[in-house]
Structure formats: structure tokens, C-alpha cells
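Deliverable D5.2: sample structural annotation.
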Amino acid sequence: MTGWPENLTPDPSRLNAILPHPPADTRIPEGWLSQWQEIWAPLAATLAGIISDSPLPPVIGIHGGQGSGKSTLSLALKDIYKAVFGWNIVVVSIDDLYLSHADRQSLSKDIHPLLATRGVPGTHEVDRGIALFKTLRQLKQGDTCSIPAFDKASDDRLPETQWHHVTGPVDAILFEGWCIGCQPVQDELLYSPVNELEEQEDEDGVWRGWVNQQLAGPYKEWFSAIDFLIMLKVPDMAAVQRWRTQQEVGNKKMAKGSTDRSLDEAAIQRFIQHYERLTRQALTRLPELANLILSINDEHKVADIQTREFRT
């Protein structure tokens, strides 16, 4: 079984404080908890050192393909730090900053039809995201901040009455999402389509070129706010397909919107193709940029750990 690398051994006092307190939230799966002592408690202790040493609330990025466990890790860390240290940890999902359904319909008419589908860079409210981090880091005692909420089953932003509310001060921000940390590539790497969707519906490359420009522009500024980046590395695209299909069942069960736009299996296959190019790019390029790479196997467990300029 993979264990925590010896060169990343966290402060023993922090680790000993965390070990007796695995996350209590019932949404944390048993498979995740089975690696509590070997992986997740040492990770939490190591990140706790980074949070304690930061003069401002750090932004910890959590990247991973669909179904990799980003939300699980974020939920667990929030739970652990509250129980052990009394910290106020804010989870910001990039999904909650999707443009509204109506705004994406407008993009699809003005730029390219494929932008009607949420997910790729260019379908988020980046300016709000940048401003949100600044606000969260500056919250004083008793100050409040609202974070948008998005309902995937209705494919739309929820009304403000259902947004997330945060009261300051904040100790750290966990920023999780599938494309977090992704980088633009040279134009020549965009020419050849990677799947049927690009071949048939983006024949001239306008959509993928526009997405690449977003990564080079506003998303570069947004992602530059990340102080530490964790990559949950999925096995391959086949795993993403399987896990995203499982997620859709959960999305439908947790639906809060008034309209059902959930996907059947054929629609999921098409939907995943919107993400494929950047998912493949991330699998090869992001390990060179992320501070910590946790390779996830088909059983949703950590099978390998790599590091880059990891601070303990």
C-alpha cells in the first residue's frame, strides 16, 4: 500500500493532533477513509503547516478530472481543520462560478455554439472569482461574504437565497475544480482534433482556440492566486467517463433547480468530449507544475505520490 513519503514527514505534533479526528461527514466514502493514516492525515498535517505559516489565508488549489475526489478531499479538510484547530476553511468550487445558462446561450451565439455547454475555460465568471479571493482573504471578524451556487441538474446558477454564506475571518481557501492550474498551449498543438466532437463541431478550431486564449488571459490571472497546487491525477479518460456517469446520478438526486437538464448516457459521452483535450493536456503537463501529485487508481485510492518544491 502506498504510504506518505518520508521526505514529506509533517510536524509530529500536528499529525498527532489530526490522527484521532478522521472526517465525520457521512458523505466521505469508506475507500477514502481506508487510507486515512497512510495518506490523508499526513497530507492534512502538512497543509496545516502551510496554512499556519502563511501571513494571509492561502489559496490551496485542488485539480482533478471528474470523479477524482476533489470535492471529497475539500470536504474532509474543512471538517478536519474545524474539529482539530477551530479553523474557518472556505471551499470554493470552480463549478459554482459557472456562467448562468442564459449567459452561456449568449456566448454560444456570439462566439461558438459549443460554449453553450458548461465546463471549459470561458464558461466561468472569472472576474467574480478573482474578486472573491481578495474579499475572502480580507474578511474581518463578523464580516460576511456570499459565494454563488450552481445546480448541475438544472444546469444553471441558483438564486441568491441559495448561495453559500461565509463569515470572517477565514483561515484558508480550498479552490477545487477540474481545470484549475491548466495552462495554454502553442497554437499548432490545437490544429488536430482529439475526438469526434472537435472534428465535427469545431472543424475550424475556433472553439478550442478561444478556450486556449482564455487560459492565456483571464484564467492565468485567476490561477496565479493559488499558493499551493494539488493534482489528483486520474488514470485515463476511460476512468473519467465511468466516474462522470456515476456523478450524474448524484447530481440528479441533489437537484435544487426548477428545471431538469440532467444527462443520459449518450449525452454524458458527448459532454465528456468537451473536457477531453484539457484533461489529456493536464495529465501530461500539470505534473510539472503542481506541488503535489496524487495518482488515483481505478478503485479511487492513491497509488503513487510525487512532489515538486513541497514546503513542510
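Annotation notes: The chain has eleven helices and ten strands. Residues 265-285 form the longest helix (21 residues).
The annotation will be released with the project's public dataset once the embargo ends.
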